[in-house]
Amino acid sequence: MDSLAKIRDFYINKNNYYYTQLVKHINLLLNKKGSVLELGCGTGYVLNKLHGIAKTGIDISQEMIEISKEKYSGIEFVCTEKPETLGKKFEYIIVSDTLGYLSDIQEFLGTIKPLFERESRLIITIHNHIWNPILRLAESFKLKMPYVHENWLQQSEVINLLNLEEYQVISHSRKVLLPIYIPFVSNFINRYIAPLPIINWFCLIEIIVARLVPLQKDYSVSVIVPARNEEGNISKIINGVPNMGNGTELIFIEGNSSDKTYEAIQSESEKYLGEIDIKYFKQNGTGKKDAVYKGFEKATGEILMILDADATVKPAELKKFYAAISKGKGEFIYGSRLVYPMEKEAMQTLNQIANEAFASIFSWIFNQRITDTLCGTKVLFKSDWESLKSDIMSFGKNDPFGDFDLLFGAYKGNLKFLEIPIKYRARDYGNTNISRFKNGGDLLKMTFKAAGRIKFV
Description:
Residues 105-169 form the BRCT domain. The chain is 38% helix and 18% strand. With 457 residues, it is of the alpha/beta class. The chain folds into 2 domains: 2-212, Vaccinia Virus protein VP39 (Rossmann fold); 221-454, Spore Coat Polysaccharide Biosynthesis Protein SpsA, Chain A (Alpha-Beta Complex), CATH 3.90.550.10. The strands form 2 sheets. The chain has a 7-stranded mixed β-sheet, sandwiched between helices. Helix 1 (2-14) packs across helix 4.
């Protein structure tokens, strides 16, 4: 590696457009205030361009590290073959275009585990194996830095190695169809053409985001119940919500009902005083999203759960969600009403068609299967909510329910998605608070905006 140190920056400058694109797509995955470690940092170019307030670079080449230290102040550079001995943990561990140099990738993935916390993310970039002949040709014409490969793994092979070492893959994507700069043409192709189905298979950069599977543990839980005109369902909710983990609090946010929902919450809460931890508040704003977010702010539990007050999902189902998140199977866990057969009249035909259409669009945007975007039952850690909420708000004010806000925010925050099928029941009391066509139009606008921020970048 020392032999490449003196020519590395020459080839980076020669292929500046490629490296600009690489940095851009990694930065889209980073929190600007996070701690970043790059394993195989070379001469520090990529690390210097990445977001982060505390950055560390490691390389096995002393020559590379010396060049990095001379060029970039404010970044810690260390020459070592044992990054696990750093004695620190990082929010982001970057392994960019480095796996090909390693003789045993599985062993490497095992040795870096001490660098991880629950929230830590491993971001790996590799080259699409389809490009192998082109890149070899570019090397022969001295258009690209010589690359001494120990291996050339496909994306599926890297994912398999991650699974073997108890990492969970959060997302995988392909970027950059044209890695050389042609004014106007390159940016247009890479932003608008490269994400399209089939064409995307031929992109050069493959990005994998993963996390280390955490150990199972118990947590405290807050169940948020937004309730408007649900007087007849309050008793069912209170009697049905199970006690989970280290304790469960039930938080009702009443939304200026025209019936006696608030009075029902008060009277039912008094019956269970000292037995069930129940809190209730009146909503200041309007809409389900506003109620849910107020509940999040009032919650004291480590895990936040949303349960609709219409009782179309039995409260007992929450046990499944708690088991999944406490065992580390996911971080953003949502219900799907479209797997099991649902009760007659539980969902109108137009609603089901719209739900299935949105699910297909989201599956394409996220590059993972989503079967239901609008199920009200959703679960995440409060610490993740605190990290995500500023970015969630940036998607706009079109979402009246908060479901799309949370989905887009969780994806942008690199949370591990998990879908749990639930039995969807018809209402026993009251009428839906949804305005189908108006709300559907608002959600469609938000979907287009999110596609621009996630897919066409």
